[in-house]
Structures
1.
Amino acid sequence: MDLTPNADQEAFVTATADWCRDNMPLENARERSPDLWTQMREMGWLGMTHTDLGLDHATEALVFAELGRHLAPIGALSTAVARRWTGTERRVGLVIPAADTVRILDGTGASLALGLRDGDAFTCALPAELASAASLDPSATLARLASTPALTPLGEPRAALHLQLLAAAYAVGCADAARDMASDYAKMRQQFDRPIGWFQAIKHLCADMAVRAAVARSQLYFAACALDAGGADAAFHIAAAKHLADQAAVENSRANVQIHGAIGITDEAYPHFCLKRAHLLTFVAPASRQILLDDAA
Amino acid sequence: MDCNFSPEEQQFRAQCRDWLYANVPSEKRPLNAIEAIDFDKAWQRRLFDAGWAGINWPAEYGGRGLSIVQQVIWLEEYAHAHAPWIGANFVGINHGGPTLILNASEEQKAWHLPRILKGEAIWCQGFSEPGAGSDLAGIKTHARVDGDELVINGSKIWTSFAHVADWQELVVRTEEGSQRHKGLSWVICDMHAPGITVRPIAKMSGQVEFAQVFYDDVRIPLANVVGGLGNGWKVAMSTLSFERGTGFIADQVKQSQEVSELIERARATGMIRDDRIAEQLAQMRAEVAALQAMTYRNISEVARTGQPGAEASVIRLFSAELGQRIERMAVLLLGEAMLDFRYGDDNAVADYLRGFAATIAGGSSQIQRDIIGERLLGLPKSR
Ligand SMILES: Cc1cc2nc3c(=O)[nH]c(=O)nc-3n(C[C@H](O)[C@H](O)[C@H](O)COP(=O)(O)OP(=O)(O)OC[C@H]3O[C@@H](n4cnc5c(N)ncnc54)[C@H](O)[C@@H]3O)c2cc1C
């Protein structure tokens, strides 16, 4: 039992964080370079999930938390999961099914999309001319399909868990980003002749952000290890991780807006990037309350 | 990173479990410290004789010298087996002993540590005073050096188990006129010394477990100072950081068991159909899992670096507040039966009333949030 990253994993995290900072800063989330997908593929993140590489889910979770911290494209989740369970090397959109319609995120340039329905993973073919437009999350494009496409079940229960785990990792990263943005601002912004972080009302909001992020990250690590171990408790632990990570991402993003004051609610400042990403993630492989209540793990 | 215990650790777990199932006493631990003291001492002696006391304490002082992971496994199995709380031995095992291991002289360690492990010496912790709670550096109880003795005057309060204790980890001002963290000393105080008066204090749960202690020209040998005269703050902090790190593992396992029991009860009574209750229970289920994961992360950090991670105060804060949410849910599920509570009952209502202490004792939640904001996030110090 060791829930701290080993030396190889540390190296992955550092390399990912360094690259993201230089090439995919959070601040550019709504105007990513057109080459970003090619670069991400070259860096290996979209294909690191393939069994040939022999990397475990724990390493993936660590790397995807870093990607999530920089608000990497949401379609990287579906692409990485499809790589593992369908073998495709192509870009794969993310499906969010609803009762009345089907939403495709980051479907531009993809011919296939992947998502969950009733807890099972499926893929569907995308029309050649997908009319993608903006979505709530400024980093993601959205298309709505008028008629429900034919869904092809992947027939592999682990695929759904895999998507939920990586989405939880993204949310953990998002929660970290909001926490750090808030505490950086609280150290810098001065009112009443001192940094606002001096005031306990602000300091304690920041402390609660740190708690939520630490809680979610810890459960993410355990969940990833549980999936690697292949035990029956993996579904419970991943659901718990997703539930807590979504909560941490949404609540931290909301607190971050408050801590920024008026600038926090503007389009030009960055807090809304985290907030909108956090809300989007709650619709990606959401945790089932039933699994949380049922499983004694 | 992995969540599997090694074959040796699993074997150790099986040994813990076997012994506990055969030896956990069937009678309940009495509620009040005075009535519980014989029970506590006898149970600690049994643990010691069977080799389960001080699992990760050094072997030369009666411990087993095993790893912190094995200590955690023991505490997990201990809670799973519903073994009794170690009660009056808590301070010696979790504060006094570890502080001595880190700071005391060979002589002090050789005398005290085995007695703590055997349940022969009950310890209490005399840090807080009427005027110094969260602001511990405001300590006023003072000691004047007279030959090879300290002469102590003043008062401590909220001292758990003071009325049954043999020894006290006592922090006093040994340098006259010194301010704040300076001039304090950490002293092993004999609770049977002349001049000590103990006045027990009842809690709103009805339990009588802590007390106010008065010192009237109490004479303690200078040789009982630990870590050197004037170094009391440093020595005291080593205890507190321990408490914030690994001191509460059995409680965490108990919290997880409690959530499972609450879900069963909510199902049995049909209250689970209330959406708000179902949502809160699902939330707690996820949180107790995460608390365990966070503790494992912290333990892994200790195993790797010898130090608890900076996130120890996160665990402390989260665990205390989670515990209170669980206790509150338990009384919510009780409904009007909550009103039947009387002093002396040891049930969910008693747990609920006792549970208020969790966010006050050992550094209040407000103080923990300051620590997290300042030490973890680097925000400016407000005190
Ligand atoms: C069950 C129990 C057992 C205990 N056992 C022991 C023991 O064995 N030995 C021992 O020495 N002590 C013991 N204590 C005492 C404990 O350490 C103190 O209660 C604790 O440090 C808080 O001090 P206080 O009670 O004086 O509260 P205060 O410090 O007066 O705090 C009152 C309120 O003010 C808040 N507050 C204080 N300072 C600040 C600040 N700077 N910013 C924001 N809010 C602040 C607190 O959070 C709290 O809500 C025990 C306490 C309890 C409840």
Note: The mean pLDDT of chain A is 96.
2.
Amino acid sequence: MQFGLTQEQEMFRQMAADVAKTAIAPKAAEVDQTGEFPWHVVDAYRQQDIYSLTVPEEYGGAGVDLLTFCIVVEEIAKVDATAAIILAVQELGLLPILLGGSEEQKRKYLPGFGSGELIAAFGLTEPEAGSDVSSLKMKAVRKGDKYVLNGTKVFITNGGIADVYSIFAVTDSEAKHRGISAFIVEKDTPGFSIGKIEDKMGIRGSQTAELIFENCEVPVENLIGQEGDGFKLAMMTLDRTRPGVAAQAVGIAQGAFDYAVQYVQDRKQFGKPLAAFQGLQFMLADMATQIESARQLLYKAASLIEAEGKDGKISPYINRYAAMAKLHAAETAMKVTTDAVQILGGYGYIKDHPVERMMRDAKITQIYEGTSQIQKIVIARSYLD
Amino acid sequence: MKIAVCIKQIMDPEISPRDFKIDADAKNAVLGKNPLVISTFDENALEVALQYVEKNSGEITVFTYGVAKSEDALRKALAMKADNAVLLESTKEAGWDSYQTGKVLAEGLKKHGPFDLVFFGRQAGDSDAGIVGAVVAEELGLPLVSFVTTINQKDDKVFFDRVTDEGRERVEASPPLAVTVTNDEGNTPRIPKVKDIMMANRKQISKESVGELPASDFMEIISLDIPSSDVVCEFLDGNEPADKVNRLVEKLKESKVL
Ligand SMILES: Cc1cc2nc3c(=O)[nH]c(=O)nc-3n(C[C@H](O)[C@H](O)[C@H](O)COP(=O)(O)OP(=O)(O)OC[C@H]3O[C@@H](n4cnc5c(N)ncnc54)[C@H](O)[C@@H]3O)c2cc1C
């Protein structure tokens, strides 16, 4: 196992750090306050070709490996978790097409996702189907050369922002999870509309919306793969995107830690800098060790998925390591950001310092793309089944 | 137009002052875990050259004189879209003798040249000496235009906008010549794009050994330290604001500020 990054990966990290510093960090606090979608971040990603990262070269992208993508997400999350998820969700939305789509579908959509001209979203969760994906209710009924979609999706990141949605719906209600299929739905399709836009605790600039489908007709060409492939595609997608959320979590944690390290050297109490107190030194040591272990597990997971999961191959390790990386990183982010707030004391609780926002942002990493409890179920099953 | 840009790899000058340490015995700054970057004004110089080539035409070769690790700086320059890169590789960190550095660069430029325009940053971000550009111009027998912010071409005339003590001026000069660049809003270095980073990593960097140079025979650093500054806060008494102002003026005179 190789522990160092390549020169190219270091260059990507530096590029992401420069974009984060110049285009994202200056407005991160304002975006958090207003909760408005940061189009300037999308523009920066387009300008720097960042959306092209994971799109294969034959579809006009850069086709970098998953680890490189995670490094970029991590670097951005150090300054702003909202901006990080905007990038990670592009991957979430496009992967069902990349993994299961026809050549025609890939040619139609992937170049646009790569340039950032098209923004993607992923619609799986429903009011009654969160952790339990197999109980989806949304229906897709075939009618001639169309499928008619009826139902509601909730909590969809980029809802109302995206141009193209990967949507999961039931085509055969008898077949349980084998009756789920995936569809490409374009934003202007009649019968498709955006419902409630959520007001959230964290990642406040990321738009989370309800999607409403009322007799929404999509052409049969928009079915991804075969009828019944949906569940497998959703799981394969999540196996490859959970490292992205883990990278977001590691980045948030590192950002909060770095801030705390600076702070303890500046702030004086009892005639000494806070850094002189062993009680706080021990906290910093724990935080740093947790972050580094989360990062190493993430890098291992990303490398392993890259090596074993090429071309949609299924390997039992992918599932396990993706879940481990996300679980550990998310728990670390929550713990480290909470400790960072503690280290700043009252100042940590005030919006003048970014650790307040980081602590709220960290929470989501324990929830979306499978809660921490669900990751544990996945990990345990990978040993027991 | 055949263009050369000389860049230096230095310790990131934007690190927090807390991370800046000096080894008094070695008479050098301690790199420690601090990152290495392309010296700021050199990046501005590369940006000016890139903008010139994009508007007109030309081919850019970047040069650096340094140890193997300096390759990273060249790689970044390639990712910013320079065409070629040459590493004049030394086995030891270059010293602070700008004259020696200038001579090494001049030899490399002669070998790969001749160039129509040779760019430098106005001074390195670590030594702040600002000598190398002039030394190379002298060695190559080129005229030098200093403190340039932008270059424009109309027909076959090349115009250089430069910053002076009084303001700005525009000079017309005909290549071949050397140029030193200062920072300006219009030449903020670009951040490399994803695909350009990938292409940069597929390019060859030409490496030429210059061995270890002898110690400088006319320059020696006697001592190196970080200046310390003390802040003393004194409250002035007085009932009326006018009293306080008078006392303040007295104090300022006493300490020779006024
Ligand atoms: C901001 C945000 C963005 C999101 N973006 C998207 C998106 O883009 N696309 C999308 O499809 N979804 C998205 N989601 C949905 C998200 O993935 C779900 O919220 C998540 O999977 C949990 O589902 P739930 O909210 O229904 O919780 P529930 O499933 O109701 O879970 C409630 C609690 O029960 C626990 N629990 C559930 N089952 C078990 C079990 N078997 N054993 C032990 N504990 C269990 C859970 O861990 C949790 O603590 C987003 C959510 C949020 C908040």
Note: Residues A 122-125, 130-131, 155-157, 200, 208, 364, 367-371, 373-374 surround flavin-adenine dinucleotide (CB under 6 Å).
